[in-house]
Amino acid sequence: MSLASQKKQQNIAEYILFVWQMEDLVRAMYFDMEAITEFVRNFTPDEATFQDELTWFKNLIRSMKSERVEQRGHISEVHELIFELNYLHNTMLNIVKDKAYIDAYNVAQPNIQDYLQRSDGKSTNDIETCMTALYGLLVLRLKKEPVSDETVSAIQTFSQLLARLSEHYKKMKTGELNFTLN
Question: Does the predicted model carry a pTM greater than 0.90?
């Protein structure tokens, strides 16, 4: 099983961030299969794992090309997952009215609004906003650029919200989530 498949089963938010990172990696390598193969080989412990990972990258590249997101943007699977997460997010807030989830959202919500204002409202929903901010922090850290304590603190609220949402998502996908109305 590929690393991506494991992430998808364990934590959907981490999976989305991983896919975004791998899309950027593929772009940085100019879709060069030889370079990508070498990269994958360096991070896989055995031949079976190597083949799983290489297959996953080939499928990612195929999707990126067929969906015309070679330069920027994300594959449709990611958009669908964010839509699904946002639907679950709204369900947790407005139908299930899960107190712990609402509390996490109330802590994150002012930061979400602030981030939306700073990004000219490019995100379409709260969950996409949180994901975009987390990915932005990841990119800044990879570039070893400074990040203010205020930004780290705000993004921690996004991380906590997404962790809780991802746990609900996992339970929903395994049939463990019981939507009892409060």
Answer: yes
